[in-house]
Amino acid sequence: MSGAPAALAASVLWGTADFLAGRASRRHPAALVALVGQAVGLVVLAAVLAVRGADAAALAPGAISGAVGAIAVLTFYRALALGTMSVVAPIAATSAIVPVIAGVADGERPGPLQWVGVAAALVGVVLASTAPGRPEETAGDHATQAAAARRAIPLALFAALTLGLGLTFLGRAADHDALTGVTVARAVAVPVLAAVAVRARVRATVRDLPPLAAIGLLDTAANTAFALATTTGLLSLVAVLGGLFPVVTVALAYLLLGERLRGLQRAGVVLALAGVPLIGA
After folding, report:
1. Contact, 166 vs 72, CB < 8 A?
2. Of 76, 75, 24, which is closest to residue 208 (Cα–Cα)?
3. With left for phi above 0 and alpha for psi between -120 and 50, is residue 205 left, alpha or beta?
4. Residue 265's closest CA among 12, 83, 20, 18?
5. Using CA atoms, how far apart are residues 218 and 39, in angstroms rounded to an integer?
6. How far is the CA of 67 from the CAs of 28, 60, 79, 155, 175, in angstroms?
7. Cα separation, 149 vs 145, whole angstroms
8. Terminus-to-terminus CA distance in the chain, angstroms?
9. Which residues of the chain have pLDDT under 70?
10. Rounded to an integer, what distance in angstroms lies between the CA atom of residue 190 and that of residue 140?
C-alpha cells in the first residue's frame, strides 16, 4: 500500500512521543503535558496553514477528531503515568480496531486473518492487564504501585476507544485536506485542555516547557503523517501500521527504564502487538 511509509513514520513518532509523555506525566499533571504539546503543535500548523490555505470541507471531521482526541490524550497520558508503559501502550494500540470497524461500515470486508488479529488483540489486552508492576517497587510501596497500575488498565482501554475514534475522524478530514484536519483538531483540543488545566490549577516553570514542547512537535508530526497516509491507503490498513507505535514505546521503556514483565503479561503484550498487523493482513 502506498501509504505505508507515512503510516510507519507515524508509529515511530507516536511511540517516541508517548514514551516521553509517560515520563513527563510522572512529574507533571497529564493536563499540563497534553496542553503544552497540543498548543505548540497548533502554533506550527496554524502558521503553515496561514500561508497555504485551508479546505472548509475538512473542518467538521477535524473538529470532532480534536474533541475526542483531547479526551483521548488526557486519558492516555494519565494511564502512562500510573501504569507500566510496556502494558499501557499495547492496550492503547488496540485502537486500530475502531478504524477497522469504520471501514467495515463503509463497505470494506476484513478477511479471516484480520478477525484473528482482532481476537489476538483482545486476548492480549486481558493478559497484559494482569497485575502489572514496576522494577522500582519495594516491599513498602508494592501495594500502592500495584493499585495505581490496576487503575491504569480501564484508562488505557478508554484511551484505546477514543484514540480510535479520533483517528477515524482524522482520516475523514484527510479525505478533503490532511493539514486542515490536523490543524482544526488541535484548535478544538487546545481550549478543552486549557480548561482542564486551569481547573486543576497546574503550574510549570520556563524550564519545564521545552521538553513538553518537543512531545507536542513529535505528536503533531505523527498525526500529520497519519493523515497523509490515509489519503493514499485504506483507513483500516493505515491505522494498523500506525498502531505499531507500542513497539517503540516498549523498546524505549525496556532500554531506558528497565521495565520488566511477568510471563502472562509478556504473552499479552506479544499477542496485542501481533494482533495489530494481523488486523490489516
Report:
1. yes
2. 24
3. beta
4. 83
5. 13
6. 22, 11, 19, 17, 19
7. 6
8. 11
9. 1-2, 110, 126, 129-146, 148-149, 236, 279-281
10. 39
Alpha carbon of residue 240 to chain centroid: 12
pLDDT the model gives residue 139: 45
Distance, C-alpha 178 to centroid of its chain: 18
Grid cell listed for 256: 531506558
Contacts of 66 (CB under 8 A, 6+ apart): 166, 184, 185, 186, 187, 188, 189, 192
pLDDT in tens, 128-143: 766 544 444 444 456 6
How far is residue 228 from each of residues 25, 71, 92, 173, 223, measured CA to CA in Å?
29, 23, 22, 10, 9
pLDDT, tens only, 10-25: 989 998 998 898 888 8
Answer whether 259's CB lies under 8 Å from 84's CB: yes
**Alpha-carbon distance 173 to 216, whole Å?**
20
